[in-house]
Design brief:
The complex is a heterodimer of chains A (about 325) and B (about 180). Chain A is an alpha+beta fold and about 325 residues long. Chain A contains 15 helices and 4 strands. In chain A, helix 1 (about 5-15) packs across helix 3 (about 35-55) and helix 10 (about 240-250) packs parallel to helix 12. Chain A is flat, with a radius of gyration of 34 Å. In chain B, helix 1 packs across helix 2 (about 15-40) and helix 3 crosses helix 4 (about 70-80). Chain B is mainly α and about 180 residues long. The chains are: A alpha+beta (about 325), B mainly alpha (about 180). At the A-B interface, helix 1, helix 3 and helix 4 of A face helix 2, helix 3, helix 7, helix 8 and helix 10 of B.
């Protein structure tokens, strides 16, 4: 750095080299530059450093990375749109309800309605101040004797009021915590027990309970209804642990087109590598020709090397049976 | 602004998601490169990419055609990157533990054929860039690596043009010291 230059000249030199001077400033600086060798040296040094930085920072994003990010973004935006649609439908429903309540109760137009309104308010306040004892039966009950599903569906009971416990390998129980405590017990293969487990897997907000439910479902006999619930959890559960367990449970079910398509969707969209590996595991149990094009995409796009290798291994088993190149061209 | 882009923006503003994805495809490479230059980490760049375009999708109705669409995206990218400070702190720790930051090198174009090894120069440049204060680094990247005009940079970072210039020569002063031995590499 030449010592003869003042700070302003050095700053101007830096801006000149960075092409950050305005036209008049640049012309003025160039006039000065012609007559000042020290300034020329300064500009040369700065330019050399700029060349080094731009060479070292030159970036090329691989096309497959961009393609993967676009797919991921597409999924997120679809989800946002779905959420927005759900929200707007709920908002309109709520506003309809509010409108009806407002019309019929809070602005009664006839004396008879006014009386009915006040009686109803009094009743509601009474219910809040003096809660009634629950009508649920007390003590231990067999699952079949108490229709828990009916209570859940009617809103009398919520899944957060239920705790699951396991007596032994086959027997499962539920503690129902309403105003009194109850417990319902039954065999894992009882339809009513399974239905409660499906309900909890699909509806409970607590991921720990959903995990417990999916574990118990995987221990029960594989039935079609359970398969549908597990596929749904694999695709939609927000907790990766639950999705992973659902995928592992689905290993014991017969593979069909729905399951294969669900697994492919997971391979393309699930951010969790373990879940994607489990989905690939299901596909590898009984690989069919129709999954090859999707797996070829996985062999190129998946971030995980192991998954890419496994997918390649499956597609290799079909080499000779189908023209892989044709699929790539398509 | 090209007419094609203008039309796509209008369609996206009226709720056409397909048009928005077309806009993404036209601009995402530049956004990803900027994200990478700002974060120096592939994973952070990918996270930033997603966040930028989700924000763009949610706010596209606010775009008023007063600037280029990409400068609007750059503004979102820069502002969002400032929320990645925590991750950058983790990156610094990682760098100090593992100089062979191979993840960083994956997207770098290795065009060096000089006597110093390209990896050494890249590491030196990276290290020099990371010591720059955040805004100086951002201004330097936008000017020198993205070739933006001073007035566009001023709009993106929301500072005056004079401040942009001040940041530039301060950044240059520091880089000269840090990269002295690599200047003719």
């Amino acid at each position: 750095m030449p010592d003869t230059l003042n700070k302003e000249q050095r700053d101007q030199a830096a801006l000149y080299a960075l092409d950050a001077l305005s036209n008049p400033e640049r012309k003025q600086f160039e006039q000065l530059l012609e007559s000042n060798p020290d300034l020329q040296t300064e500009v040369e040094e700065i330019s050399a450093i700029l060349t080094t930085t731009s060479t070292a920072c030159e970036v090329k994003i691989p096309e497959h990375i961009l393609a993967g990010q676009r797919n991921l973004l597409r999924g997120k935006i679809d989800q946002l749109e779905a959420d927005a649609a759900k929200k707007s439908s709920l908002t309109s429903k709520l506003s309809d309800i509010w409108y009806n309540v407002n019309e019929r109760l809070f602005i009664p137009r006839q004396p008879v309605w006014a009386v009915a309104t006040y009686v109803m308010f009094a009743f509601l306040i009474g219910r809040l101040v003096f809660p009634t004892v629950s009508t649920l039966p007390v003590a231990n009950i067999a699952a079949d004797e108490l229709n828990v599903m009916q209570l859940l569906e009617s809103g009398t009971l919520s899944s957060k009021d239920i705790d699951i416990y396991q007596n032994n390998a086959k027997s499962v129980g539920f503690n129902l915590q309403a105003r009194n405590d109850y417990s319902v017990e039954g065999d894992l293969d009882d339809k009513s027990v399974r239905q409660i487990l499906y309900y909890m897997l699909k509806n409970d907000n607590n991921p720990g309970k959903r995990l417990k439910a999916v574990n118990l479902i995987s221990e029960s006999q594989p039935v079609e209804e359970g398969r549908v619930v597990l596929i749904s959890s694999l695709l939609t559960d927000p907790n990766p642990g639950v999705r992973l367990r659902a995928a592992k449970s689905l290993n014991s079910y017969k593979s069909d087109k729905t399951l294969r398509e669900a697994c492919i969707k997971v391979l393309f969209e699930d951010e969790n590598e373990a879940v994607r590996m489990a989905a690939l595991g299901i596909l590898s149990n009984n690989p069919t020709e129709d999954i090859v094009p999707a797996l070829q995409i996985v062999t190129r796009m998946d971030k995980n090397e192991f998954i890419r290798d496994q997918a390649r291994h499956i597609t290799d088993t079909f080499k000779g049976q189908i023209a892989v190149e044709r699929i790539e061209d398509e | 602004m090209k007419e094609e882009i203008r039309q796509l923006i209008k369609k996206a503003q009226s709720g056409d998601t397909g048009a928005f994805h077309d806009l993404v495809k036209l601009h995402d490479e530049r956004v990803m490169i900027l994200a990478y230059q700002l974060t120096h980490n592939e994973q952070d760049a990918e996270d930033l990419y997603q966040e930028v375009f989700i924000k763009a999708y949610k706010n596209i109705h606010n775009f008023r055609f007063e600037s280029q669409f990409y400068t609007w995206l750059y503004r979102i990218t820069v502002n969002t990157s400032y929320n990645f400070k925590r991750k950058q702190a983790r990156l610094k720790l990682y760098e100090s533990e593992n100089e062979d930051s191979s993840g960083y090198l994956d997207w770098i174009v290795d065009s060096s054929n000089n006597n110093k090894s390209s990896k050494e120069i890249m590491n030196a440049v990276k290290s020099a860039m990371t010591i720059l204060p955040q805004k100086q680094r951002t201004v330097f990247i936008l000017k020198h690596l993205e070739n933006l005009k001073i007035k566009d940079i001023a709009k993106i970072i929301d500072i005056s043009e004079g401040t942009v210039k001040r940041y530039l020569f301060r950044a240059m002063e520091k880089l000269r010291v840090e990269l002295k031995e690599y200047r003719y590499a």
